[in-house]
Design brief:
Number of helices: 4
Order of helices and strands: HHHH
Shape: elongated
Strand content: under 5%
Helix content: over 70%
Distance between the termini: 37 Å
Largest sheet: none
Structural class: mainly alpha
Number of strands: 0
Length: 108
Amino acid sequence: MTTFDDRERAFENMYARDQELQFKILARRNRLLGQWAANLMGLTEVEADAYAKDVVRADFEEAGDEDVIRKVLGDLTSAGVECDEARIREALEHKSVEARRQFISEMK
């Protein structure tokens, strides 16, 4: 029975690591999206960093990406930047790929 228990623990540990990695990738993706939006709004480097952190925090409001998209769209609109939800979703996809690539290169 100990072999089964060891195997079960190993799978639980692997699942926990996978979940942690996914969380980190999503947080980085959101930070990258925040930096992209800050650039469109013409924010300074310090303001852009603070804004990117706000975008990461916005993801904790509800499950899924809608809270992040809503925040970025609202902020871009308020700043007078012409942007629609489709453009933000496209940027979100690009930033997701970029975040994954960054993590892969850091693991090497």
